[in-house]
Write a structure and sequence with these properties.
By secondary structure, this protein is α/β, with parallel strands linked by helices. It has one domain: Rossmann fold (3-Layer(aba) Sandwich). About 20% of the residues lie in helices and about 15% in strands. Strand 2 and strand 3 form a beta hairpin. Helix 4 crosses helix 5. The longest helix has 16 residues. The protein starts with about 35 loop residues before the first strand and ends in a 45-residue tail after the last strand. Belongs to the ABC transporter superfamily. InterPro entries: ABC_transporter-like_ATP-bd, ABC_transpr_LolD-like, P-loop_NTPase. GO terms for molecular function: ATP binding; ATP hydrolysis activity; transmembrane transporter activity.
Length: about 375
Amino acid sequence: MTSSPEPTQPTDESDETPVALESESRDGEPATAVPVASVAAPDGEPATAVASPDGEPAAAEPATAVVPPPARPDEGDDRARTTVLEAPPAHRHAAGHELSGGAGEDEARPAVVVEALGVRTPRHWVFRGVHAQLAPRSVAAVVGAAGSGRTSLLLTLAGRMRVTAGSVTLGERRIAAGTRGAALRGYRSRVAVALIGGHVGLDPELTLRHNVRDAADWARVDRHRALDHVEQWWERLDFSFDPHARVSELPALEQRAAHLVLATFGAPELVVIDDVTADLQVDDRRRIWEIAREVASSGPVVVAATLDELTLGADTVIRLSRDQPRHAAHPDQSDPPDGAHADQPQAAPDGGPQDPPPTRRQSIRETPEEPQP
């Protein structure tokens, strides 16, 4: 598994200009959210757009803070490990697993609520004013060019980047500016970061089995059950299961699928993955969205960032753009539903930092250290 410890605090040293998200109209009032929203930040002004299945964005709240990673369990002590694994959809009953929750009122409530979320450096907004309501077991796509703030948004949703404004609610847990200690650790324990390029991910030089063992240790899941879990998923996805193959030797689609599947160890409520379609052929890009959908159907909300405009299977699209705002009620539609609108974003300072570069490798489940103020 790979990653680096400090992708948590935006800096001002960058050649790219992140596009901040915006959900405010020119007169300062928040724009109405639609099931799929798109946004723009002309000339570097912060812009946001998000989707909300039914309802308007709530008022802004403060946001999150970051704490050091939890202690890693002793590799020789299986008693410290849980066995929380959700079987792939076709194998749930055969494997003795059931999906958590059920149909009804709980399914109707959003699993993730983002309210006026924003991150700012000492000089610039990385993004701001993000509103979203993500349904249980849904897939959300974050689309934008390099430097548009996609990675920063994912890290913020995961509780790995300090938030300047707004809040994120995940089930019964909520983080906002100044959230620290047990509250922040509790939130982060329910989120899995599947892939953040150069920061978090599988170790390509290790075998699939070794990566599974590492991920199982960090999620406190029994190693043998974890390997069986991955084999079931490979059967479900019609992949040839070779646990002794190095990850770098696997086809690109299988590598990306492995990141998603291993992130489900511990039954998180939210999984985030960056560059989900990078280096994939067109057919494989379609397939990875199908796989994301299958992973979401097993329990967690999946939020995937991509440079690609092809977002088949996404229930919600968050579009980061420098162009004029566009609206859509669904990824396949271009017009908003009656009454939905997004106004021109307000002006903001030009420029801004790109996401911080990686500094070292770490486990997929390890969390970055808290940056110094």
